[in-house]
Design goal:
alpha/beta; Rossmann fold; two-stranded parallel ribbon; 10 strands
Length: 201
């Protein structure tokens, strides 16, 4: 059994990660920005001191974070910096980050966001996610970013436990529950280090 801190536990990916980890018998602490009448612990992922406090005694951290009220170009790098600093203070080395397909390479090496026909409307959001990965890459942290290789499957929410790592492909789908299997697998049996991967079923 591991002790796992899940930051962003109220969102869909975070909720699925908590359920998957608890289902495997892990001791889980879920964190959200506000309590909102739930049993979640309150914490701000951009506050390194609070991250360190929450992460103390944990074996790993899963971060599935987003703040719709903040500028992504500010929020994501700030969250990454706070995680790097806070986890170092807490003595936690493993971070599993929920990433974004748009910044992953396709089969021919082109980033998904640079492929023909891919939406440019949210490009600044994509680049903000990349800025967070750049922060991780410049640190000694043992991190992995895991994203759907394409998008989330909202029609089939089931857990199949048969995901695989694959290049980015806008046509591929994966459920939140299946993504959570990959997230917790990288805590239980770390196979990818200091890199970003996409997963599909």
């Amino acid at each position: 059994m591991s002790k796992i801190l899940v930051i962003g536990a109220r969102g869909r990916a975070g909720t699925a990660a908590v359920e998957e980890a608890v289902g495997r018998g892990h001791e889980v602490v879920g964190v959200a920005r506000t309590a909102g009448g739930t049993s979640l612990t309150v914490g701000d992922v951009t506050d390194a001191g609070r991250v360190a406090e929450l992460a103390a005694g944990q074996d790993a951290v899963i971060a599935a974070v987003y703040d719709g009220g903040s500028d992504p170009a500010v929020f994501f790098p700030a969250a990454a910096r706070a995680l790097v600093e806070g986890l170092e203070k807490a003595g936690v080395h493993r971070l599993v980050w929920v990433g974004l397909a748009s910044i992953l390479p396709t089969a021919d090496g082109t980033l998904l966001m640079d492929t023909d026909g891919y939406s440019t409307e949210y490009r600044s959001f994509f680049l903000a996610h990349q800025a967070a990965l750049d922060v991780f890459a410049a640190s000694p942290l043992d991190w992995v970013s895991i994203a759907p290789a394409g998008d989330f499957d909202h029609a089939d929410p089931s857990r199949k436990d048969r995901y695989r790592v694959a290049p980015a492909d806008a046509g591929e789908l994966i459920s939140y529950a299946e993504l959570a299997v990959a997230l917790v697998d990288e805590v239980d049996h770390p196979a990818h280090h200091r890199t970003a991967i996409g997963v599909v079923v």
